[in-house]
Amino acid sequence: MLADNNNPALITRSADGSAGDVNYAAVGANYSTHRQPDPRIAALIEQALGDAAATVLNVGAGAGSYEPTGRTVTALEPSQSMRDQRPAHLPPAVDGVAEHLPFADGAFDAAMSTFSVHQWSDVEAGLREMRRVARGPVVILTCDPLAVQDFWLAGYAPGVLAAEARRYPGMDRMAAALGGRVEVLPVPIPWDCRDGFNEAYYGRPEMLLVPAARTACSAWGFVPAASVDASVEALRGDLVSGAWDARYGFLRRQAVYQGSLRLVVAR
Predict the structure, then answer these.
(1) Which of the four pLDDT bands, split at 50, 70 and 90, describes residue 136?
(2) For residue 108, is it within any domain?
(3) In which band, very low, low, confident or very high, does the pLDDT at 16 lie, cut at 50, 70 and 90?
């Protein structure tokens, strides 16, 4: 399926190949430990891909989270450190960037991307490329920037969630770039979500005291270390005093959380 590429995109890449705003050679060593695919979210992605999609391109595939089974998947990932974390049962990933996919028009039945689009240098170019190479649906797991700062963490780490909101492209912007019929579906986050993004800990706030868990959420790297330390200590203090539970303790008993997580499906 690889095609010649005579007009490569001018994308700045780090030493390990990371092409977005995060150097995964520096922060991605333990990514796959805390960012495991959650089966309930995976089921929604599988449903969106549809039964007819036998061949799927996974753009910004990282360590392989949410790659569907029972289909022929081609993974594309610019970061060497992330490619190295892919488990043995998954195929090796192709080195490449979303903005200029090295594949022929209509090479795949479907294309997908999970927690990647906010790191692309040119969102519109990447989405157009996904649309170009996919004959069928384009499925993207992302977050709605308009809802990111509604999470309780904004009261402790406002800079982290402000950085997150700035990075994610808006739903209208994505729909315009993809064209065709686009659905934006809210994705419920289960209390025991295995995928450790910030909102996954809505009812388990103690996890955000764990440095490796925070590192697996790249937005924490966009604020000064002193600010991170202050945020963590404020949260720790409220957990010890009971202030967090007084405000948000009901979330410990809430089975799912409707946050900013969205599934964008273009057909």
Answers:
(1) very high
(2) yes
(3) very low
CATH number of the structural domain spanning residue 189 = 3.40.50.150
Determine, yes or no, domain membership for 3. Answer: no
The C-alpha atoms of residue 140 and residue 261 are separated, in whole angstroms, by 11
Ordered DSSP codes for the chain: -B---SS-------TT---SS--HHHH-TTHHHHBPPPHHHHHHHHHHH-TT--EEEEET-TT-TTPPSSSEEEEE---HHHHHTS-TTSPPPBP--GGG-SB-TT-BSEEEEES-GGG-S-HHHHHHHHHHHBSS-EEEEEE-HHHHTTSGGGGT-HHHHHHHHHHSPPHHHHHHHH-SSEEEEE-PEETT-SB-SGGGGTT-GGGGGSHHHHHTSGGGGGS-HHHHHHHHHHHHHHHHHTHHHHHHGGGGG-SEE--SEEEEEE-
Is residue 13 included in any domain, yes or no?
no
pLDDT digits (tens, 9 = 90+) for 28-81: 456 667 889 999 999 999 999 999 999 999 999 988 889 998 999 999 999 888
- The pTM assigned to this predicted structure is 0.86
State which residues form the domain around 224.
24-266
- Quick one: which of 216, 174, 260, 258 has its CA closest to 65? 216
- Structurally, the chain folds into a number of domains equal to 1
Distance CA 112, CA 263 (A): 10
Separation CA 14–CA 11 (nearest Å) = 10
Residues with Cβ within 8 Å of residue 95, at least 6 apart in sequence: 17, 76, 77, 78, 80, 83
- The structure tokens listed for 219 are 């937005």
- Examine residue 11 and state whether it is found in any structural domain, yes or no: no
